[in-house]
Design goal:
Blueprint (H helix, E strand, L loop, with lengths): L1 H7 L6 H13 L6 H8 L16 H13 L5 H30 L35 E3 L9 E3 H12 L3 E4 L6 H12 L9 H24 L14 H14 L4 E6 L4 H7 L5 H8 L17 E7 L2 E7 L9 H15 L8 E8 H6 L1 H9 L11 E6 L9 H4 L16 E5 L3 H18 L3 E6 L17 H9 L3 H11 L5 H17 L37 H10 L11 H15 L6 H14 L4 E5 L14 E2 L6 E2 L12 E5 L5 H11 L6 E5 L10 H8 L2 H5 L6 E5 L14 H6 L7 E3 L4 H13 L6 E5 L13 H6 L5 E2 L12 E5 L3 H12 L4 E6 L1 E3 L3 H8 L7 E9 L5 H15 L5 E6 L10 H15 L8
Parallel strand pairs: 4-6, 4-7, 7-8, 8-10, 9-10, 11-14, 11-15, 15-16, 16-18, 17-18, 20-21, 20-23, 23-24
Antiparallel strand pairs: 1-2, 3-9, 5-6, 12-13, 17-22, 19-21
Family: Belongs to the alpha-ketoglutarate dehydrogenase family.
Catalytic activity: N(6)-[(R)-lipoyl]-L-lysyl-[protein] + 2-oxoglutarate + H(+) = N(6)-[(R)-S(8)-succinyldihydrolipoyl]-L-lysyl-[protein] + CO2
Function: E1 component of the 2-oxoglutarate dehydrogenase (OGDH) complex which catalyzes the decarboxylation of 2-oxoglutarate, the first step in the conversion of 2-oxoglutarate to succinyl-CoA and CO(2).
Length: 946
């Protein structure tokens, strides 16, 4: 063969074949046989091509072959010999193509459906005839190239057998879409070296059976004790339990200290009991209504849990995240929680904390937040070192099973290809294949710190829930399911047939688990009875505080001035853009007292003072570095080399971390991530800023299901701050309102804070109060747009140093409060419009009072301010928003209660835009006309009052 290689490969008649081979070499050097790779490596390069081998034109190759070919002495013997060699080499190329085809499309031929109902399209690429090979070639030896078969040459029959067993049995692997050669070859090596079926020993196989018995036994017990009760059981997908058990132990063996698991309903109770070690006695009490709740609570299959387990790498903390019924929205929440835990451990790689997210097949394919979560996976602000995604693939979504209705892609997992994640489809009825894929996925995540997907193809033995009758919509599928043995029974039969266990041993194991269930004891043998508390966050300092809790948010003036100067000095020789340089120069004047402070500088000082005091700050959003309205400039950009300088990261040597990231163009995924981060990081300030406040409605699921209700459903505290730019500036309906009314409608039981600060000092003290006060409630801020540069929306350094956050601001311009006949209550920017018009008209008997916090409503503070106006005869609430929007409908009863307790005869009226379907006018002229009208109404006393 070696002689054949040396004498025939450069024959002139082989030019086309060589060009094809060289084309493959340029794409992937390892895809061609070693001899060819060595030969191509040694091709002469012209000077301009040395830097990039792929720049060699094909003509260079052809010319070289032609020159060598002309130098050879050709005889009839060599011609015949060369013809024979050419035919062999042609087939050699076809064999290489066949191997490549199996790697790329073998998954489409794999036996993945436990029920055998899924129709698979015929894959022509995997036929010998497609590659101009035949059964007559099966005994011919060929070079195997990069195929791991134990030697350099093998017969075609051996090659096909190896490929079939590796790629077309119970595992279907999709990985050839990955452009990174190291990752592809890592997967090839792991799979091909054992034919995707390692020879597991008796102990491992018995352990697999025991875990299946646990999964199967719990479902049978719950079905018999509580028939017809919703529990979203795992029947048909029991292999999830041995998969998770192995995953936890293997991740722990790499030295991880924490795992955060996210999942929806199906199988959740089983995971709680058999993976996290929740006592069955507690679970049974919940089913029977005997459980004690500290809040309004949630259904059993939404509850979270945490525990510590022992692994080969030491003790590991397991946390199962709470989840609402919005299925995939839990994924970015888990990612945020994981990132917070990693940041707490100063883990920038992802070694110490790992995320596992379990999805449903229909939701994975259908929910857009899945794409957003994948898109975040490798970005600076959101990476977590790779996530292991498990798709619990029931092959039906509620009642939808036809692929042409459920999705437009072949697999429900195809969205994962967007980040080049490997996808391993596995037949759930083969527990050993499941075990192998689990080990493969964990090792891949550990090696490359990237996402990996396991598509656990199973079925749903019962309906969408236990009270549902599935045969109404899937008669043939459920006819097959009724006749199909459980995974546990099938595997037990397999082990009995192999002589690993006896029927008596199998019965003993089943009975033993049933007895453990009845005793109500923890069923996880690796559970740690006395957990190491250092592995998780201590929330004790943040529990049990009332809303009346106050804190000091001022600070010594000289110290504040020093900080104010230092955060506005760029490094020497750092060229700034002209406007940015002017902004920093102005801020230095503000620090010196030569200019009043504007909004952006006051906000920056809030962060600086917190960082110096040891409170970490995380700020994310689509344009937070500069600020959508160019007011923040927390990240400075070198105008020569585009390097950056973040002054707030250089406040003090021992300061807390300041993390600021411009996010991807996402609201739902990013806000969910930040919620998860804030629920795991109580010690600092976590902020998400919307590009425009209006855009927050793209994350309404997060607001409804987590931010406003998480504490009362799950006793889950969260100090997340949302900055939502809000204000009517004539910019149309999509750039005006942050939908204040929606947040106020969700307010109850002191669940969130809603603030509308109107001065720089107010935002400074508000942010400091949110962090320093050990009360962890979400803060929703209607932040301004035009006020960022409004000449009157300024504060002094003294107001920052010695002030506090005021929930109500009295009118600063009224000298004679006894002469005031009307009071205008308002919030936000409209105060400045009202004041400007009042000043122009010379009105002195109308006071304008600002509500800076709309919820919890500051009744005591408002009463205190109103009590200074004893001669009121009229009062109005004035807002920019239409009457059916803004604060009016949700807050008028609060205002009236305070008003009537002071002056019973004064009726609170409404002044503002009329009710409207759209948030704002789209035409500037109409906007100005509406604004002038309601400002005039607000400043015109009725005849009775005059």
């Amino acid at each position: 063969m070696e002689l054949l290689w040396r004498s025939s490969h450069i024959a002139g008649g082989n030019a086309t074949y060589v060009e094809d081979l060289y084309e493959a070499y340029l794409r992937d050097p390892n895809s061609v046989p070693e001899q060819w790779r060595d030969y191509f490596d040694k091709l002469p390069l012209v000077e301009s091509q040395v830097a990039n081998l792929k720049d060699i034109p094909h003509s260079t190759v052809r010319d070289r072959f032609a020159r060598i070919s002309k130098m050879r002495v050709r005889t009839e013997a060599t011609v015949a010999h060369d013809a024979q060699a050419t035919e062999y080499e042609r087939k050699q190329v076809r064999v290489v193509q066949l191997i490549s085809a199996y790697r790329q499309r073998g998954h489409q031929k794999a036996s993945l459906d436990p029920l055998g109902l899924a129709e698979r399209e015929h894959v022509a690429d995997l036929e010998l005839s497609f590659h101009e090979l035949s059964e007559a070639d099966l005994d011919t030896a060929f070079q195997v190239g990069s195929l791991h078969i134990g030697r350099d040459n093998a017969t075609l029959g051996e090659i096909v057998d190896a490929l079939e067993r590796t790629y077309c049995h119970h595992i279907g692997a999709e990985f050839m879409h990955i452009v990174d050669t190291a990752q592809r070859h890592w997967i090839m090596t792991r799979m091909e070296s054992v034919r995707s079926a390692p020879d597991y020993g008796p102990d491992v196989r018995r352990q697999l059976l025991r875990r299946l018995i646990k999964a199967d036994g719990l479902e049978r017990s719950l079905a018999s004790k509580y028939p017809g009760t919703k529990r979203f059981g795992l029947e048909g997908g029991e292999s999830l339990i041995p998969m998770l058990a192995e995953m936890v132990q293997r991740i722990g063996s790499y030295g991880a200290k924490e795992i955060v698991i996210g999942m929806a309903h199906r199988g959740r109770l089983n995971v709680l009991v058999n993976i996290l070690g929740k006592k069955t006695s507690e679970l049974f009490a919940e089913f029977e209504g005997r459980a004690q709740y500290e809040s309004s609570g949630d259904v059993k299959y939404h509850q979270g849990f945490s525990s510590n387990v022992m692994t080969p790498g030491g003790e590991l903390h397991l946390a199962l995240a709470f989840n609402p019924s919005h299925l995939e929205i839990n994924a970015p929440v888990v990612e945020g929680s994981v990132r917070a835990r990693q940041d707490r451990r100063n883990d920038t790689v992802g070694d110490t904390v790992a995320p596992i997210v379990i999805h449903g097949d229909a939701a994975f394919a259908g929910q857009g937040v899945v794409m957003e979560t994948f898109q975040m996976s490798q970005t600076r602000g959101y990476r977590t070192g790779g996530t292991v995604h498990i798709v619990l693939n029931n092959q039906v979504g509620f009642t939808t099973s036809k692929r042409e209705d459920a999705r437009s892609t072949e697999y429900c997992t195809d969205v994962a290809k967007m980040v080049q994640a490997p996808i391993f489809h596995v037949n759930a009825d083969d527990p050993e294949a499941v075990l192998f894929v689990t080990q493969l996925a964990v090792d891949f995540r550990n090696e490359f710190k990237r996402d990996v997907v396991i598509d656990l193809i199973c079925y749903r033995r019962r309906g969408h829930n236990e009270a549902d009758e599935p045969s109404v919509t899937q008669p043939l599928m459920y006819q097959a399911i009724r006749m199909h043995k459980s995974t546990r029974d099938l595997y037990a039969e397999r082990l009995i047939m192999d002589g690993v266990i006896s029927e008596e041993e199998d019965s003993t194991l089943v009975e033993g688990y049933r007895e453990s269930l009845d005793r109500g004891e923890p069923l996880v043998s690796s559970l740690v009875s006395e957990p190491n508390t250092a592995l998780f966050v201590d929330w004790t300092p943040y529990l049990g505080h009332e809303w009346t809790l106050t804190c000091e948010t001022g600070m010594e003036l000289h110290r504040l001035q020093k900080l104010a100067h230092e955060v506005n000095v760029p490094p020497e020789g750092f060229p700034l853009q002209r406007q940015v340089s002017k902004i920093l120069e102005d801020r230095r004047k503000m620090a010196a007292g030569a200019m009043p402070l504007n909004w952006g500088f006051a906000e920056t000082l809030a962060y600086a003072t917190l960082l110096e005091a040891g409170y970490p700050v995380r700020l994310t959003g689509q344009d937070v570095g500069r600020g959508t309205f160019s007011h923040r400039h927390a990240v400075l950009h070198n105008q020569k080399d585009e390097s950056t300088w973040i002054p707030l990261q250089h406040v003090a040597e021992d300061q807390a971390n300041f993390d600021i990231y411009d996010s991807l163009l996402s609201e739902e995924g990013v806000l969910a991530f930040e919620y998860g981060y804030a629920t795991t990081s109580p010690s600092g300030l976590v902020i998400w800023e919307a590009q425009f406040g209006d855009f927050a409605n793209g994350a309404q699921v997060v607001i409804d299901q987590f931010i406003t209700s998480g504490e009362h459903k799950w006793s889950r505290l969260c100090g997340l701050t949302m900055l939502l730019p809000h204000g009517y500036e004539g910019q149309g309906p999509e750039h005006s309102s942050a939908r204040l009314e929606r947040f106020l409608q969700l307010c109850a039981e002191h669940n969130i804070q809603v603030c509308v600060p109107s001065t720089p000092a107010q935002v400074y003290h508000m942010l400091r109060r949110q962090t320093i006060r050990p009360l962890r409630k979400p803060l929703v801020v209607m932040s301004p747009k035009s006020l960022l540069r409004h000449k009157e929306a300024v504060s002094s350094l003294e107001e920052l140093a010695g002030g506090r956050f005021h929930c109500v601001l009295d009118d600063p311009d009224i000298a004679d409060r006894c002469g005031v006949k009307r009071v205008i209550l308002c919030a936000g920017k409209v105060f400045y419009d009202l004041r400007a018009e009042r000043r122009e008209r010379g009105i002195e008997d109308i006071a304008i009072i600002r509500l800076e916090q709309l919820y919890p409503f500051p009744e005591a503070e408002l009463l205190q301010v109103l009590s200074q106006y004893p001669n009121l005869v009229d009062a109005v609430w004035c807002q920019e928003e239409p009457m059916n929007q803004g604060a009016w409908y949700s807050s008028q009863h609060h205002m009236r209660r305070v008003m009537y307790s002071h002056l019973e005869h004064v009726y609170l009226g409404y002044v503002g835009r009329e009710a409207s379907a759209a948030p704002a006018a789209g035409y500037m002229a109409l906007h100005l006309e509406q604004q002038q009208r309601f400002i005039n109404d607000a400043l015109t006393l009725p005849a009775s009052a005059a």
